[in-house]
Predict the 3D structure of the following.
Amino acid sequence: MDSNMFTILPMSQRFSLKPGETYEGSITVVNPVDATEDFVYKASIVPYGVSGEDYQADLITDSDHTMIAKWIKIEEPTGKVKPNESKKVNFKITVPKDAPAGGQYAAITVTSNNDANGGDGVTVQNVFEMASIIYGTVAGETRHEGEVEENTIPGFVVNTPVKLTAKITNSGNVHADATFIISVSDFFTGRVILPTEENDGEYNEIIMPDTTRVAEREVNDLPALGVVKINQTIYYNGKVSTVEKNVIICPIWFMLLVFATIGAIIWTIVHLIRKHRKNKRHIDA
């Protein structure tokens, strides 16, 4: 079996926690219908954090916000799932009485269990890993602080899609949701390009505590040449940031065509002027 085939559900969970209490949760390991072998898995708990403004996942570094990784215990960390079947993996979160208020984050990772597969005479390289993120909020003095520092739409692009950018900081002690709403229309006709029946133009990003995140979103299905009006509105920490701009989409081939046309016109005018002067000299002579 290709270890890249399995999936886990859900990809993330949120828990509101109180010091001194215990909570139960689970993930589901799925071996898809087209699998040809049993999937032997191993589940583990690791800290979850992010690095850099592009939010690269960090499943190694311990911090004050990853103590929950030590509070979680998986009931059966190893198991086997037959093709076209799934198995629930249960876990418990035991919150210490002295747990600090604020955000706590961990990941439940699932990989192929090499030791078990090797015992069955099957060699499986553990090259693929999936993780379900645990977002925990411990009750107490939580602080929601931060702001949208940048909300950017380009005014001119040579090709599509158009990339929208936002820079958001979180100086609080718990994660917060930033909600983005994007609308697009044709500048000349007013035709609505976004939202559509399939895409309402809304999405969310989680901003982790004590971090700055640069979120980028591409707007597709735009004309290859033209002008579109784009609006990006961000709701974050009770505040609203809105930017609207008319974006000129002008591909390089069109610019070259324009320059070539202008050049041809200038050459024609210069040529006519020279010809006129030459004819005038002949007449004067």
